[in-house]
Specification:
It contains 4 helices and 12 strands; from the N terminus they run αββββαααββββββββ. It is of the alpha+beta class.
């Protein structure tokens, strides 16, 4: 006969094995509706704010101007460089000089053939022609450099116009016109509300039943009464040993931004077919 302790352990194992397994569709989980992103928008260069054109709660679109740094010096520089880049006076002068020397070179070569001019005179004119071609090439290069300097100045001016990187809603406005913007100073914070990210923590026993693309039903807390569908986009591959749970992230489309972020909700999964 087997000892009594062994029978007791076997009976306990049988009881655990034959217990009801937890099913995903039978559970309701607490969740939170978070924004897809929160961006602190700053300036790529330091300066004084000329104006901030948005306030808290304003809906903004990607590329919309939200602030402008004082840029009178940059605009004056662009005017100067534009005048220089658009001027071809130096090129015209060097072209005329080169053409004149080329005519002299051709005449001198003819005179040398007739033994009227010496070879030294021809070499002297040809040297002047080489110099004239070099000066013309330098004038063309100077104009190209001026055009590149103008493009760089325009980029520097563009950096002083702050635009929204996303479609979203202004969460906070931290600075106003006349204030100084440093390299680590956010002007505004913008939240992206489309889509919303649903965060929930499930028991580790349900881990085999979760997969990417899985559909779930989201029921926001009052005063919102409707339910919405979301899809699993990520879930933790590392469990939280202390709580015996793992995190699940779902994506909930919110094209009109009607659903708020930072709101509690309930998460349920439909029964499998």
């Amino acid at each position: 006969m087997r000892p009594a302790p062994f029978l007791a352990i076997a009976a306990l194992c049988l009881t655990v094995t034959s217990g009801h397994a937890q099913t995903l569709s039978e559970e309701v989980f607490d969740c939170v509706m978070d924004p897809a992103d929160i961006i602190d928008v700053g300036a790529p260069v330091a300066g004084v704010l000329e104006n901030v054109s948005i306030r808290r709660g304003v809906v903004v679109t990607e590329g919309q101007i939200i602030a402008q740094l004082e840029s009178s010096v940059e605009r004056a520089t662009i005017g100067l460089l534009a005048t220089r880049a658009n001027s071809d006076v130096a090129i015209q002068a060097q072209t005329a000089r080169r053409d004149l020397i080329q005519i002299q070179q051709e005449r001198t070569a003819t005179l040398v053939e007739r033994n009227v001019a010496s070879a030294d005179q021809l070499q002297e004119v040809e040297a002047e022609l080489v110099t004239a071609n070099a000066l013309l090439a330098q004038a063309v290069l100077d104009q190209e450099i001026s055009a590149q300097e103008l493009a760089r100045a325009q980029q520097q001016l563009a950096q002083r116009t702050i635009k929204s990187p996303i479609d979203g809603v202004v969460l906070t406005r931290n600075l106003s016109s006349g204030e100084f913007v440093g390299s680590n100073t956010p002007i505004v914070s913008i939240v992206q509300l489309d889509p919303l990210l649903i965060e929930a923590f499930l028991p580790v026993e349900l881990y085999p039943q979760i997969s990417s693309g899985q559909t779930a039903t989201i029921a926001p807390a009052a005063p919102i009464t409707d339910t919405y569908e979301a899809k699993v986009i990520a879930f933790d591959k590392v469990f939280d040993a202390a709580s015996g749970t793992f995190g699940v992230e779902l994506e909930l489309p919110n094209p009109d931004g009607l659903l708020p972020a930072g709101h509690r909700c309930l998460l349920t999964f439909p029964a499998a077919d």
